[in-house]
Amino acid sequence: MVLLNRKGNLSEMKNEYIKTDLGNYKITVHPGTNLVVFLNGAGSFDTADAFAPVIEKLSPNVGLLAIDYLNTGLSSIQKKEYSLTEDIQNMVEMITERNPKKVIIVAHSLGGIFARLIAAKLTNVTGFVGIEPTTLEILAGIPDIPEYQEKKEQFNAMTQEQAIENMKKQSEKSFTKKQHADLWQHFYEDSKRDSDKQYQQQSEVFMTDLPKMNDSKFSTNMEVRIFTEKYRENEYKRSEYYTKQTEIISVGDNHYLHWDYPTEIAQKIQNLV
C-alpha cells in the first residue's frame, strides 16, 4: 500500500483529556474504522510527539490513538497509587470507546508490556509493531552476553545531559522543525513538574504486579513486526512476542529506531491495517 504524507493532517489530530480517579490521561486522536494505538516507552516524551515522523506517513483514513501514561508526557500526575490492572483497564476503555473494527498496537520499549496486557483484554487486536519492546528476559536482568554488556556500559558512561544532547541530534534528522520543537518543549514541560518521583514509585508498584500477569502473550496467529538492533534478534525469537506470524527487522544501532526509520515502520503498520 502506498504511504501518504500526513504533514498537513497532523494538525487534524485532536488532544483530549480523559478524567479518571487515578488521574487525567492525555490522548491524541484521529477517527477511523481501523485504529492504530501508539504506546510510548518510559520517559517524559508525549506519545504523539515521539511518533510524529511515523504518523505523518500513514493514510489519513487510518484511525489513530496515542496515549500518554500518567506521570508522563502531557498526562497529569497520578492522584493516588494504583495497580497495573487499573491502568490497563483505563487504556482498554479508551480503545473500546472508539468502537474500532480492528486494532493495531504500535509500541516502543516499555510500551510493549502494556501492548501485551491490553491485547489480552480485546478480541480485535490483529497486529503489533514493536520498536525494541521490553521483554521479560530484560526485566529479569541484562543478559551476561558481550553485546548486551557493551551497550550497558555505553549507556552508563553518559551523563543525562549527554544522553539528551545525543537524542536531540538524532531527532533533528527525521522530525520537521515544528515536530522537533514540540517534542522537546513538551519534554521539558514534563521535567519541570518533577514527575520522575511519581513515575519511579508507580514503576515499583508495576514491577510487583507484573509477575502475576507475565503469562499474557499474543495469540499464536497475531501478525507481529519487531524492529530491533541486530544483537537483540535472538532475544525476540525466544520472547513472549514471538508468534507464527512474526517478522523481525534488524536495523540501526540505537533504541529509538522509530526516529531513524519512520518510513519503514509506517509501511509495516499500513500493511497490517
From TrEMBL:
InterPro entries: AB_hydrolase_1, AB_hydrolase_fold, AB_hydrolase_sf. One of its GO terms (cellular component) is membrane. It holds the Pfam family Abhydrolase_6. Coiled coil: none annotated. Residues 36-140 form the AB hydrolase-1 domain. This is AB hydrolase-1 domain-containing protein. One of its GO terms (molecular function) is monoacylglycerol lipase activity. GO terms for biological process: acylglycerol catabolic process.
